[in-house]
Amino acid sequence: MERKIAKLSGVMLLALILSGCVVQQQQQPAPVEPVQPVPEQPQPVPTQPPPPETVPQPPKMRSINWDASVTPLVAQMLKADGITPGSVLLIDGVKNSTNGSLQRAKATASLQSALQNNTQFKLVTPEQLATAKQTLGLSAEDSLSSRSKAVGLARYVGAQYVLYTNAKGDVKSPELQMQLMLVQTGEIIWSGNGVVQH
């Protein structure tokens, strides 16, 4: 009988195995490792040229046509009464009495040019003027702001007349004032005014 039980037990065991009723061990879930975030690859930025730098524009200086500004006044002066033809004329540098900055050297050069071929006066040359200023201890840039300086200089170079020119008023549209003075007496024998031409 023991043999039968052993056989029966073996068959039952085999039947249990075959039927799938196997006792499973309770399994622990495998530990989950934290996932490291993958660093994002930087997205390529479309390359654009940098915006052009805006350079501030300097204030625009209105250009003055000095030739056109001084010529009509010079023409008036040459017709003035009381001028002795052939006299020596000292042209004083154009003074700036405006509320801004003017190109005085250009203005004076235009004045010299306008009188270059006149028949009334012989001009004191810029070289003679520079030498006389140096001899008298005046700066080459001295615009002879005082009449006494101009008269002294005119006497030194042997001039009979001095021409004063002054730009005054608003620098954007200055007015020119000219005066022709007799050196010996200080008398103003002609004066004229005009607006500068742009």
Characterise this structure.
By secondary structure, this protein is α/β, with parallel strands linked by helices. It has a domain at 66-195: 3-Layer(aba) Sandwich (Rossmann fold). It contains five helices and six strands. The chain has helices at 2-19, 66-78, 104-115, 126-135, 147-157; strands at 87-91, 95-98, 121-123, 161-169, 175-182, 188-195. Strands 1, 2, 3, 4, 5 and 6 form a six-stranded mixed beta sheet that branches. The longest helix is centred in the N-terminal third of the chain and has 18 residues, at 2-19. The termini are far apart. The mean pLDDT is 81.
Secondary structure layout:
Blueprint: H1 2-19, H2 66-78, E1 87-91, E2 95-98, H3 104-115, E3 121-123, H4 126-135, H5 147-157, E4 161-169, E5 175-182, E6 188-195
Parallel strand pairs: 1-3, 1-4, 2-4
Antiparallel strand pairs: 4-5, 5-6
Helix pairs in contact: 2-3
Number of helices: 5
Shape: rod-shaped
Task: Determine Rg (CA atoms, Å).
Answer: 52 Å
CATH class (first level) name of the domain at 66-195: Alpha Beta
- Give the CATH architecture of the domain at 66-195: 3-Layer(aba) Sandwich
* Assembly type: single chain
Number of strands: 6
Query: What's the overall average pLDDT, rounded?
Result: 81
User: Whole-Å distance between the termini?
Assistant: 141 Å
Secondary-structure element order, N to C: HHEEHEHHEEE
Q: State which percent range the strand residues make up.
A: 15-25%
CATH topology of the domain at 66-195: Rossmann fold
Low-confidence stretches: none
Secondary structural class: alpha/beta
Query: Looking at this structure, what is the CATH superfamily of the domain at 66-195?
Result: ABC-type transport auxiliary lipoprotein component
- Summarize the amount of helix as a percent range: 25-40%
Main sheet summary: 6 strands, mixed
